[in-house]
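Q: I'm a student working through a structural biology exercise. My instructor gave each of us a protein and asked us to get a predicted structure, then write a short paragraph describing it. Mine is AAA+ ATPase domain-containing protein. I'm not confident about reading structure output yet, so if you can add a plain explanation after the tokens, that would really help. Here is the sequence I was given:
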Amino acid sequence: MGPPARVWSVALHGVDGVPVEIETVVGGGIPGVHLVGLPDASLQEAKDRVRSAVVHSGRAWPNERIVLALSPATLRKTGSRFDVALACGVLAATGAIPPDRLRGTALLGELALDGRLRPVRGVLPCLLAARDAGMVRAVVPRAVLAEASLVDGLDARCADRLADVLDWAAGTRELDRLPAAGASDPAPGAAAPELSDVLGQDDARRALEIAAAGGHHLLMVGPPGTGKTMLAQRIVGLLPELGRSEALQLAAIRSVAGRLGESAPLSVLAPFVAPHHSASVAALLGGGSGVARPGAVSLAHRGVLFLDECPHWPATALDSLRTPLEEGEVRLSRADGTVRYPARFQLVLAANPCPCAPPVDRDCRCRSDVRRRYLSRLSGPLLDRVDLRVQMSPVTVLSAAEERGEDTATVRARVLEARATAVERWSADGWRCNAEVPGTVLRSRFRLPPTVLASLEARLEAGELSARGVDRAMRVAWTLADLSGAGRPDRADVDAALYFRDRGAA
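A: Happy to help. First, here is the predicted structure for AAA+ ATPase domain-containing protein. I'll explain a few features afterward.
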């Protein structure tokens, strides 16, 4: 039995990659293949895939005892992304290929029985971890090369077949590269629907602008056809572009969820995710057998999660949002361990005022208890986390073209200016918008004068606001001050924040 051969691959734990060293020894017992290091069922089946792929690649499979040890041994290994590394490890242990090129190289890909390389999920977070661990190269299937090339500082190469990888390892051919990909999105204001298409609804348009400027959550209540969905879809055009680190984090989440696509552009547009109200809690938060996959709240990270017809959502699904709204992440526990997915999103809710939802409220046929029961599906603790609430009215006049409201570009300019002011104020603490600032900071380091806070104090003493509600109203007041160019909120800003907190309560 000769010394073990060593190759590298990467395991996934949530959206974090974990480098895996694969040691291979050949000989010293009854012929067979033994995988150790907590492999799951799909990885156990790799023994047959790897053997067939090696034979169909024109290489001899050793008729000896083969032991493949995956380290760290305490980490559960799942999926088929280790196939290429296992095949290279066996052939390196037998001396069929030299180990030189395999040093510092992460090998990812599933093998078909005839030796073709098939794409796998999660390539981007895997290679980010490989680079951070000091690896300098990566070999991946051609279908995910664009995704692999998003990682700076790593020489990403691709192959169509295992035979190509083995020839490259032997030094008889080169593998294709792709230049590092950049952001390819159009300007967010141009890509999003136009805000001026929405007729009327001045309060709702103003609330949408405040929500975009401060990262606040928004509830719109009104009859069908008043523009709730139209407004929600237009908030993305008001949000700033994602930074490169945020775009990479979002791309990693999409990669794990299988939503990145083969072209894999590094999108800098804030995501807009709108699941149907029949979606399960697992689809909303994340889940699945084995290691849980990210759900809609994580796919909306640094963007917008829109829940239309929210009273039709199960109460358990709506209340499950409370922790992500506060903490900005989702923790999912399974038998294989606990994974964390980032989930810092803006929540936009839309609801009809009652089940029958006539165009005009006076035509409602619902009893008062039915109306109360309908909106009571939005629990008090969830509504307490919603900063802005808007009561929308029916559209009774079709505005002429010259009477259309402000366009996306005009409102976006104000939003970006307000965001820049907030970033400058909070940059030393790492907060990106007013909605992320803890209430303790607003009540201590940035405390407002008693005359400004008088209405908040009165509502708190009367039991009409919770302490959380006070904090959220102050955050909205700071956003209103940023939009107006003032240095600090005044009494009018606080009163306006309370106005928008009460408007959707009816």
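A: Here are two points you could use in your paragraph. Residues 408-426 form the longest helix (19 residues). The chain has a mean pLDDT of 89. It's a good idea to check both against the output above yourself.
Q: Great, thank you!
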